[in-house]
Structure formats: C-alpha cells, structure tokens
UniProtKB/TrEMBL annotation:
The keyword Membrane applies. The chain crosses the membrane at residues 52-81, 102-120, 132-159, 171-191. InterPro entries: DedA_domain, VTT_dom. It comes from the Bacteria. This is DedA family protein.
Length: 192
C-alpha cells in the first residue's frame, strides 16, 4: 500500500493541478498520511524552478494547517483517532510519561519534528493531546516547516537536478545534525 501511495504522489507532480495536490498531501501528511510532501515538491521544483518559492509556500501553509488538524485530533479526539494513528506507527506506548517531558520541551519538539525525518504528525497529535499552547505550536510549526521546505526550494532553485539525490538521500540527516547542534547550543547557553 505504501508503494502505491508513493507512486501516486510522484505521478501527481506532473498533474495540471499539482499545487492543489501538493497542498492536499502536505495537509494530510501533517496529521495522518505516510508520504512526505518533499517527494512531490522535488520533481515540481526541478520541472519549474521559477516556482520554487511558491511551491515551498504552498507546502508550508498546507502543512501548518494540517498540523493544526493534527493538534485538534490530539486535543479533541485522541482516544478515538489520535491513539490509533500513533499506535499504527509504534508510538502508542508510554504516553503519560511523554506528556510532561513533551510540554517541557514543546518548542524544541515541534521544531525538531518539523525539520527532521521524525514524523511531524506524531508531534502535531501529541501537541494537542498534551495541551501545548496553540500559539507556541503554530509559530514553531511555521518556523520549522518553513525551514524545511524553503531550504529544499533554495537548493533545487540554485543547483537543480544534481542536488536531487542529495536531498532525497541525506537531507534528513543534515536537518537532524543541524537540530542537534542547535539544541546543544541552547543547552550550553542555558546551563553554562
């Protein structure tokens, strides 16, 4: 099933309404869909580099809106919808312990999930379930998803197809390292 969804996502990059499809995929990925919008963005930007920043803006706006839907699932329908989604991803255990830790590091949790390969949908649902302040969630989601999608857009706009393999294979690692350095810097400033 995942392979069929992946193939469908890639085919949609050539569709005349690709921006609408991208918005749908970015929205859905933020709360339940397993395929990231990056896979649709990359061929769209390579095909039309002049639209790179429009494509990134659509992905960011739809992803944040989808994140708010995930937040609502966590806040209002966690037992019926959120818990089964998290359990299907193997994240359904240790919820109570996670609740306190998550809200203590809410900004960093949303930022980290927004830019790294960690499933953003897990963080959106958890943000609502744990009662993270909505303003913190939205602002951090805008920053995180904006970083992720605009960096991809800038790299593809500037370097084109040669950077595609790098993005598809290693960008998650780069974002993870960047986030770890950022978090370490914050901890050094805070505790030293």
């Amino acid at each position: 099933m995942i392979r069929r969804l992946y193939d469908w996502t890639i085919r949609m990059a050539d569709h005349p309404h690709a921006l609408w499809v991208l918005a749908l995929v970015a929205f859905a990925e933020s709360s339940f869909f397993p395929i990231p919008p990056d896979l649709l963005m990359i061929p769209m930007i390579i095909a039309r580099p002049s639209r790179a920043f429009t494509i990134a803006a659509v992905a960011m706006a739809a992803s944040v809106a989808g994140g708010m839907a995930g937040y609502a699932i966590g806040a209002f329908a966690f037992d019926a919808i959120g818990q089964p989604i998290l359990e299907s991803m193997g994240k359904g255990h240790a919820m109570e312990e996670f609740n306190q830790r998550f809200n203590d590091a809410g900004f960093w949790a949303v930022l980290g999930a927004g830019v790294t390969p960690f499933p953003y949908k897990v963080i959106t649902i958890m943000s609502g379930w744990t009662g993270m302040p909505l303003a913190t969630f939205v602002v951090t989601s805008i920053v995180a998803r904006g970083l992720r999608f605009y960096i991809i857009a800038i790299l593809l706009w500037k370097f084109g197809s040669p950077v595609r393999d790098f993005i598809e294979k290693r960008l998650g690692l780069v974002f993870t390292v960047f986030f770890a350095i950022l978090l370490a810097g914050f901890l050094v400033v805070r505790y030293l």
